[in-house]
Each structure stands twice: as C-alpha cells, then as structure tokens.
Amino acid sequence: MESLPITQNDRENLAQFLGNLVDTSILLRREIHDFLDYCDLMAPKKGEIIADIGQVGEALFFVLEGHGCLMAQMPESEMEIGKIQPGEMLGEMSFFDRKPREVRLRAGADTRLLRIKRSMYQRLRLERPLLAVLLLEAAIISLDHLYRRTSTDMTQLNRYIHRTGR
C-alpha cells in the first residue's frame, strides 16, 4: 500500500480531525500541523489488507474515512471480530507492544488513513514530547472504545446463548 502526499487541503481537514481528538486548550493548531509532518496519508480500497497476521506493527493509523476491520483467520475463512471507526486508531496494540498481530487489519470500505511509521514516532518522541504524550492518550482512548464495544458484544452474545433475553 503506497503513501499519498498530504496536500494543503488535506492538512486543513486533518488538522480539524485531529483537533477533535485532543484537548485543543493545550495543543495549538500549529502543533497539529506540526504533527502531520511526521505522518503520511494512505487510501486502501475496500478489502485491501492494511496489516497482516504475524506482522509486528511498524506503523499505527488514524481512521479518517471509511473503517478498518479486525479479521480473525478461521480454518476455512475470515471472520470479522471488530470494526474501527473514523476518529479511532488502528494497529496500535502491535505497534506499542511489538508482538506479532493475531488479527488481520483490512479496509472495510474505501478508507483514508493517517499513518505514522515507527521511525517517525521515534523522532516525534524526541522532538515533540507533548505530541507523543497526546498520541499515547489517543491510543488509550481508542483501545478503550474497542474494549467497551467488544465487552458489550460479548455480553449480548452471552445473554443470547443463555436466553436471558436482555
């Protein structure tokens, strides 16, 4: 999947998007634009693999448009086990724990992603520590959203199986 250049129009739209994710009382618009200098833009088509099972995350992604799917490999097929919506991160677990992925990350629709590669994240940590801390906070929030959705789904499945009807 190739990287796309970030145009000035993209920068404005991405800055607005990122401004909705972080506390703008401590982060200036200029700093959001600075963060974009560490990133690139990707546009996988529906069904395209973003990252595969067994790979260690060398990049993490913000979903700007479309959605990402977490796909488990079954004996004869794939099964969607999670969906990452616009405004959330994709790939942060393997990126931060450096363990091989256990699920495939696939574009669930034509999707636009903001990507930060590990090398650029390392530079960000040294050059702009406040931005790196805010990125970590965004990762925690994104993981929390995924965990809560998964917990809700598992509760509903358990109720269905045990026929509690709630």
How would you describe this protein?
- It is a single chain.
- This protein is 43% helix and 23% strand.
- The chain has one domain (3-165): Sandwich (Jelly Rolls), CATH 2.60.120.10.
- The longest helix is centred in the last third of the chain and has 34 residues, at 129-162.
- Helix 1 crosses helix 2 (29-36) and helix 4 crosses helix 5.
- It has five helices and eight strands, in the order H-H-E-E-E-E-E-E-H-E-E-H-H.
- The protein has 166 residues and is of the alpha+beta class.
- Residues 29-124 form the Cyclic nucleotide-binding domain.
Outline of the structure:
The chain is an alpha+beta fold and 166 residues long. The chain has helices at 8-21, 29-36, 92-97, 118-127, 129-162, and strands spanning 40-42, 49-51, 59-65, 68-73, 78-84, 89-90, 104-107, 112-117. The protein has 5 helices and 8 strands, in the order H-H-E-E-E-E-E-E-H-E-E-H-H.
Record keyword descriptors for this entry.
single chain; about 170 residues; alpha+beta; Jelly Rolls; 5 helices; 8 strands; RmlC-like_jellyroll; cNMP-bd_dom; cNMP-bd_dom_sf
State the strand order across the main sheet. 1-8-3-6
Which CATH class is shown? Mainly Beta
> Over the alpha carbons, how many angstroms does the gyration radius reach?
17 Å
What kind of assembly state do the chains in view correspond to? single chain
Mean residue pLDDT: 85
